[in-house]
Each structure stands twice: as structure tokens, then as C-alpha cells.
Amino acid sequence: MPEFLKPRSPTLPLWLIPLLYVGVTVVCGLAFPRIEQEYLAAYSHGMSVASAQATLSAIASGMMALTGIVFALAFVMMQFSAVAYSPRLVSWFGRDPVLFHALGLFTATFARRWCGGISTT
Q: Is 108 exposed, middle or buried (0-12, 13-18, 19+ CB in 10 A)?
């Protein structure tokens, strides 16, 4: 059967993976504090708003630094493999969904801190 007649499975663009992570994080980050305030107000942990903001800021700062390190190492590895191996390996790595899931996870962690700052004001 010719290649153009074979049925193709629908695939999402890879840039959509991190976007979905961030979108779900923003929706949950804005909705969950309001749901918690409405239904679980009696279960207070005694942490002040300032302490929560400081904790979330520290986590977000650490995650952004870790994100920079991880992706810098990934791109350096890609450059080294481009020299040592075939260009097909580099293009395979650039299209690998694991890279985009990692980017989405790291970016979503930072976006959660942003939503936490919005929900506490």
C-alpha cells in the first residue's frame, strides 16, 4: 500500500504539551484555593499568608533555576551528539515528547506559584 494511502493517527503538535500543563495548572491554581476556602475553611493549618507566599516563591525560584540547568544540559548534549552522531539523532531528540513533558512540568510548577500569588491577594 502506498505511503500516502495509509491511515495516520492524529498527533498533537509538540508545543501543545507544555501549554496543556500550564493551562491545567492555571485553572487548578485559581479554582482550588476558592474551593478550599468554601468547603474546607474549618481545616486551617495555621500558616500565614506571608509564609505561604515566601514558601511558594522559594519553590518557584528553585524550579526556574533547575529548569535552566536541565535544559542547558539537554541542549549541550544535543550539540555534542550532533558532532559525534548523525543529524537524525539530533532531530529525534528535538521531537521527543519527553523533552516537552519535562518543559511542561517545570513551567507548570512556576505557573502554580504565580497562581498562588494571585489567589492570596
A: buried
Rg (CA), the chain: 20
Angle between helices 49-84 and 97-119 (to 10 degrees): 160
Residue 40 lies in a domain: no
* Alpha carbons 51 and 24: distance in angstroms, whole number: 25
Question: How many domains does the chain contain in total?
Answer: 1
Q: What is the pLDDT of residues 4-36, one digit of tens each?
A: 556 665 677 888 999 999 999 999 988 888 888
Q: CB of 106 within 8 A of CB of 70?
A: yes
